[in-house]
Structures are given as structure tokens and as C-alpha cells.
Amino acid sequence: MNDLVINSREHLSPGQRARRRFMSHRVAMMSGAFMVALLALVLIWPLFSHSTFAPHLPQALTWAPDKLTDAQFHPPCAAHWFGTDALGRDQLARVASGARVSLLVGAVGAAVSLVIGVLWGSVAGYVGGRTDAAMMRFVDILYSLPSIIFVIVLITTLEVLVKQWLAKTFAGGAPEAVRLLFLFFGIGAVSWLTMARIVRGEVLSLRTRQFVDASRALGAGHARLLFCHILPNISGVIIVYLALTVPSVVLYESFLSYLGLGIQPPMASWGSLIADGAQQINPIRIYWWLLVFPAGVLTTTLLALSFLGDGLRDALDPRANR
């Protein structure tokens, strides 16, 4: 009987083994379910305030994030589960709206980091020699610079110039999207350094393997060797680090928004909501719900993303025995 179980495991493909290892990781599965539920809630939240669905839902789920009411600083209750802010806006709706912005910045920033880091690291590791040395010294120089300071300088100096150019070239609200674009590419541009180092090290270890030499002997070009033979063999490492990059990008955006350099009103993100809640802390009265709920959702999401990355790392590691 044991021999049959061992033989059945031996006939599983690497993808099936990784899937089984991931499904046996309970914390990662719970984190993945939480992220799926959060993404689904964020996507369908605008439909709750629609006249078609609002009558069939609790009142606390039907508020629009920008709707003003007379219930300023109202504590959590049946009508407002997360309370209200200084303008009477429902805090639950604003947290859901902020989640859409924060997760979008995290996803796009991680994608920019993925593209730049994989291309830079794979070319450096595959070519080697002086090209590798020059490319990695450039990475070392960027590593020596404080990344958060670099993003702040990028936003505060170049944003004004770009807004002025867009205001002269385009009409309407085109300049309003400049801050969001700077967050996308600014944070992604400083998050690719570790990805490039990891990919470069993996490519260096694979470029001298026998299957690469066999493909080269059969006439495969450099691009085919790199993108069809080497990079697919390190896709697990890339996916794992990409999953771990998303929470760091979300945290970057939240920190910048907390400092007032990220998302600007009327848009909201978790960082800007935490900043608004922190401003309401005073010796006379503390409106705790304005700070606790955005910070709690941010912390829970970051933990879920970290546990999900750990689960993917364990599942995609071929040497793991789970």
C-alpha cells in the first residue's frame, strides 16, 4: 500500500506537487481566501449604492464614499459600522474605496518592478563579464540611495513640471492623474533592485547547465535560450518574490499618503485615511474609529499577502517535503 502511494506521488507533475503543497499550507490558503474575498468586495462595492441593490442590503453597505451627511464624528453603529468622519462620510465606504486605490498601486508597482527587475537581472546574468559588472554596479549605486527619499524627491520636483505641461497640452482633469502615475512608476522603479539581484543569481547558475548547452548546440539563439529555457526554470522564484513585493509597495504608498505626498483628496487610500484619523487625536477627545479601522484593514492585508508569499515559496520549492 505504501509503495502505491509513493508511486502515485512520483508520477505527479511539478505543478501538481506544488499545488498539493500549497493546499496543505493552511495559513496560506486562509490568506488567499481573504485576499480573494477582499478583492471581490472592493470590485463590487460601488454596486451596493445603486438603486437596484440598495433596498435589499443593510443601510451600512449602501453609503457612497463621498456622500456628506449631518452625522459628523459618529461612532460605529448599525447605520455606520465603521463610524463617520469629520464631514459625515461613512468610514466603511471610504475604507473600501481606499482599498481599491492602495491595491491598485501595489499591483501596478509590483508589475513595474517585475518587468524592470527580470529584464535587468536576466540580461546581466546571461551576458556576464564587464556588462554584468557595470549593470550590477549601477544597482549597487541605487541601493546606496534612500529609496523613500528618492520617491519623495521625484514626486515633489517632477510632478509640478509635468502638471504644468499637461495643463497647457490637454484640457480637463488630465493633471489629476499625475500623482497616481508617479506613485505607480516611482515606487515600482525603486522596488526592482532586489528582484534584479535574485534573477541575476539564478540565471548565473542556470546558464552553464547541460540543457542550455544542448539547446545552444541545436541552434537556439540568445533570446530563445533566455526567455524559453532559462527564465521558465526560475519562474517559481520570480512569482514568490513578486508576491512578497506587493505588500512592500502597498506599505510604501500608505507611508507616502500618510505624509501627504501620496493620494490627494477627493481620492482616498489607506494611508491618507490613517493620516486623517491621526489628525483627530487630541487631548479632549479621541475619535478612535477613524484610526483603528483603516490601520486594522491595512495590517490584516499586509499579513495576508506575506503569508501568501510564504506559502507560494514553500509550494514552489522543489526541495520542500511537505
Short note summarizing the structure:
The chain has 322 residues and is mainly α.
What does this structure look like?
- The protein has 322 residues and is mostly helical.
- The protein has one domain (14-45, 83-316): Orthogonal Bundle (MetI-like fold), CATH 1.10.3720.
- 70% of the residues lie in helices and 0% in strands.
- It contains 13 helices and no strands.
- The radius of gyration is 24 Å and the shape is globular.
- The two termini are 20 Å apart.
- Residues 1-8 have low confidence and may be disordered.
Task: Please specify the SSE layout and strand pairing.
Layout: H1 2-10, H2 14-23, H3 26-48, H4 91-127, H5 129-144, H6 147-169, H7 178-190, H8 193-206, H9 210-217, H10 222-230, H11 235-258, H12 270-279, H13 289-316
Helix pairs in contact: 2-13, 3-4, 3-13, 4-5, 4-7, 4-8, 4-11, 4-12, 4-13, 6-7, 9-10, 11-12, 11-13, 12-13
Stretches where pLDDT is under 50 for at least 5 consecutive residues are 1-8
Shape: globular
> Can you say what the CATH homologous superfamily is?
MetI-like
Number of helices: 13
Please tell me the overall pLDDT: 81
The helix/strand order is HHHHHHHHHHHHH
**How many distinct beta strands?**
0
Distance between the termini: 20 Å
Helix content: 55-70%
- Specify the biggest β-sheet: none
How many structural domains does the protein architecture include? 1
- The name of the CATH topology is MetI-like fold
CATH top level assignment: Mainly Alpha
- Structural class of the secondary structure composition? mainly alpha
CA radius of gyration: 24 Å
In the CATH hierarchy, the architecture is Orthogonal Bundle
β content, as a range? under 5%
